[in-house]
Amino acid sequence: MGDQRLEGRVALVTGAASGNGRAIALRYAREGAAVVCADLTPDAVAGSWEESTPTHELIAEQGGRAVFAACDVTDGAQVTAAVALAVGEFGGLDIAVANAGISPKAHKLRDEPWEDYKRVQAVNVDGAWWTCRESSRQMVAQGRGGSIITLASIAGITGVQTGLHYNMSKGAVVQLTRTLAIELAPEMITVNAIAPGWVRDRKSTRL
User: For labelling alongside 176, which of 108, 146, 148, 183 has CA 20 to 30 A away?
Assistant: First the structure.
């Protein structure tokens, strides 16, 4: 286990079944937080390099506290339910990570399918919006501050070859973060974005 810096805190992580979300959830648990692992299913996405043990089960096996929340972040009611699960299971919400995101095959704009574009915006932008809105509502109501973290990307800051649909979505996440940070500062809620580049696949299976 870690040094327990987050003992007594409750975290919600979207997209927690695999990838960055899984790594974040495991690290929070290592630091003592109770974690709501939200995703479409508890299992890693098809073709993932990761082992099949669901994130919340792995945390529990290694002495942490976690539950799974079935959550499509494009559906506000499901995000609301995930926040409610954090409150019901662990007594509140202190940290929210809007991590869920997708990146379909990149196309030139003139060839980009409209359905691909709409789906990317729905997951990456609307999903972050719902996660930030519902978590901030809970944190403000609690009156004890908190932390909201979004997963942006270097693609949202500078031009890279990852597709206009994806780059636009991450640029929107950057602006969501900047604006919300100002809005929530008086409530003692910090809002920050992580903007990674390419992330090397590496198994994250230990607390």
Answer: 108
Cβ neighbors of 86 (< 8 A, separation 6 or more) are 10, 12, 36, 92, 93, 138
Question: For the chain, which ranges sit under pLDDT 50?
Answer: 47, 203-207
Whole-model pTM: value is 0.90
Contact 97, 194 (CB under 8 A): no
3-state secondary structure of 148: strand
How far apart CA 172 and CA 186 sit, in angstroms, is 23
> Which residues does residue 13 pair with via DSSP β-bridges, in sequence order?
37, 97
Residues recognised as catalytic: 166
pLDDT in tens, 87-102: 999 999 999 999 999 9
